[in-house]
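Quick start: read one record
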Amino acid sequence: MHLTIYASKTLLGAAAAAEAAETIRAAVAESGRARIIVATGASQFEFLSALVSIPEVPWDRVEMFHLDEYIGMSADHPASFRRYLRERFIEPTRIGTVHLLDAEHDPAEVCARIGARIAAAPVDIAFVGIGENGHLAFNDPPADFDTREPYLIVSLDEACRRQQVGEGWFSELESVPTRAISMSCRQILASRRILCIVPDARKAEAVRATVEGPVTPDVPASILQTHDDVTLYLDLESASLLRKS
């Protein structure tokens, strides 16, 4: 795991976006297309804003999957990750192909259908974050490190749900759904490259546990230690609890 630390969220986002764009261009040049995974949430704002503004990215040759979505939530709800991606990524880039998780009616069917599509070919690069409770996608602790299913129906723990309130997506805890579709940890690890974008002091303990602790389902993001090509993008605040080298 390669760590990079920046003085601000803006610098972090710009650096991660530059690496993401370079990887997408290289994949398209090599094989004629790129397959990517895109995260959502407040931690990705600066990164996605920088990424969509980079010129000469061949978005028409890019196929996108996303990590998770609340079960039963309308695509127009302010907290919907489909809406988030549509407004912040899909519409600005006019990306060629998108596979969105519609979890309103038949989540099991969506897991199977989109899972078959993502498993059909390698993913070139995944953009992910880390939750305040150490979650990876919506794999809350203790995460399932064993399943090879690409997508799962998961239950959200209280810490995860409180994070959504804290970020302003919901007005109170009772409004946050208790179940979601999530990409599995093993499917994320199947990506050739992973950029993990984690700003803010509220993520500092999760970052410390992910980087310096053991690989354990109790810290789902710690499984990133087992991947050969992960770059962790931190700011000074999210890196503040790491041991000084």
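Helices lie at 9-31, 45-52, 81-93, 107-118, 158-166, 185-189, 204-212.
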